[in-house]
Amino acid sequence: MLLAACGSSSSNTSSAKDQELNWMENSSLPSMDISKATDVVSGETMNNTGEGLLRAGKDNKVSMGVAKSYSKSKDGKTYTFNLRKSKWSNGDPVTAKDFVYSWQRTVNPKTASQYAYLLAPVKNANAIMKGKEAVSNLGIKAQGSHKLVVTLDKATSYFPSLVASPTFFPQNKSVADKYGKKYATTAQANVYNGPFKLTYWTGTSDNWTLSKNPTYWNAKNVKLKKINFKTIKEPQTALSQYQSGKLDATYLSGQQPKNYKNNKDYVERKSAGTFYLEINQKKDNMLRNKKARQALSMAINRNQFINKILQDGSTPAKGVVASDLASYKGKDFASVANVPSASTQDLAQAKKLWKQALKETGRKNYSLTFMADDTPAGKSAAEFIQSQWAKLPGLKVTNQNLPFKTRLSRSQNGQFDVVATAWGADFPDPISFLQLFTSDNSYNNGKWKSAAYNQDIANANGKDANNDAARWNDLVDAQKTLLKDQGVIPFYQQGKAQLVKSNVKGLIYFPTGANWDFSKTYIAK
């Protein structure tokens, strides 16, 4: 997961008169192609230069975007969006056809979009992605310039949240055709319909600039005139620039959160990202042994890891679904679907279960390799887990820290014993996490299987999709099944420690998807 922060190398902190925000990122901007971008930095930039039918808002609520109103059929399968009159940054009108073109381009196999799966609820999307159906048969139709009708294969309660994400934004076909392969590879090879437009970005530059978009339909309420982005990968460099007034905010890491916890500018953001351990159940009968998996989980003191090592606002994970992601009748999913024994330390019980597992599998001792990223956080996690598991009798743990791409490839190919991994929700619904662990999901790297779990997820996506109470119960039961069998080991929910200048007001942060919305941000006097 890529984190954001703030920066400009040339100017001091903006005055209220300038309405200029200096923002830093840990990574440069990879892509502005709505159909192809997958990372947080791209998503954040697209979220501020573009706008979909609906806009994401606080507390996982959506508000009107390009659509001024919409309605849903009784069976939950048909959405009709009525579009307001709005314009692209080049003056072209934004029409229903721009959404049709964008969605069709994304699901077209020739585009090779990694995020095309988000469109799976739309009628025929899966068949189109597999090359079995014509792109023109996607369930999205323009009825004139300002009415859009979307047909789904089945009712999907979280669909409004999906259409608020950048993957569902419109694209201008004439501009895409004009630039061809160069489309969306620079600031000028694109057009924008959001609060801001990208005015400087070479496609490879570490700096990029957003300027207020005068053609945006709600431009009168956008206060910032400019946002200057700069990539700074070294935390101490970012902190120094913040202290010298060249940045309006910066993320903290390592010892920095501990040192600045009492600073008036200190803020902690909770991410909807969960770190967990996957166990390769194809390796041998030891890792297939439920008691062995439970012992590995119960041996870990998550509070110690968070309070002594991370110190960044992270919290112990109650399950795989992040806390504060979704609620029903005032109750948070993570609390309702919690199985405490699957995510809390009980060393005495862990030792007992481990001994039983050794006996049941005919062993006196056991060796495993723990795989994690070669980042500072990955190495810290591996060293900590190794020290915790060393307390289990007869267990030898070897750490293996690898570059992210290598670790990801080996995880996907099942070349691991136990691996530390993470998932960040793309939209505020438990299914964003829980769909990962069905038997046939490609992200289920540990190959854990449960017929009951598969059925619960199928029911939530099928017969109960339009029944909020029944669907909620399906998903609660699914997570409890996963945790009771210790299909994975929940570790922690990611936090982000940050310093933000006190005169920066109106920041909107989302735990899911594209993290930031600057449309209401301003510099106070």
From TrEMBL:
<dbReference type="GO" id="GO:0015833">
    <property type="term" value="P:peptide transport"/>
</dbReference>
<feature type="domain" description="Solute-binding protein family 5">
    <location>
        <begin position="62"/>
        <end position="444"/>
    </location>
</feature>
<dbReference type="GO" id="GO:0043190">
    <property type="term" value="C:ATP-binding cassette (ABC) transporter complex"/>
</dbReference>
<dbReference type="GO" id="GO:1904680">
    <property type="term" value="F:peptide transmembrane transporter activity"/>
</dbReference>
<dbReference type="Pfam" id="PF00496">
    <property type="entry name" value="SBP_bac_5"/>
</dbReference>
<comment type="similarity">
    <text>Belongs to the bacterial solute-binding protein 5 family.</text>
</comment>
<keyword id="KW-0571">Peptide transport</keyword>
<dbReference type="InterPro" id="IPR030678">
    <property type="entry name" value="Peptide/Ni-bd"/>
</dbReference>
<protein>
    <submittedName>
        <fullName>ABC-type oligopeptide transport system, periplasmic component</fullName>
    </submittedName>
</protein>
<keyword id="KW-0653">Protein transport</keyword>
<dbReference type="GO" id="GO:0030288">
    <property type="term" value="C:outer membrane-bounded periplasmic space"/>
</dbReference>
<keyword id="KW-0813">Transport</keyword>
<keyword id="KW-0732">Signal</keyword>
<dbReference type="InterPro" id="IPR000914">
    <property type="entry name" value="SBP_5_dom"/>
</dbReference>
<dbReference type="InterPro" id="IPR039424">
    <property type="entry name" value="SBP_5"/>
</dbReference>
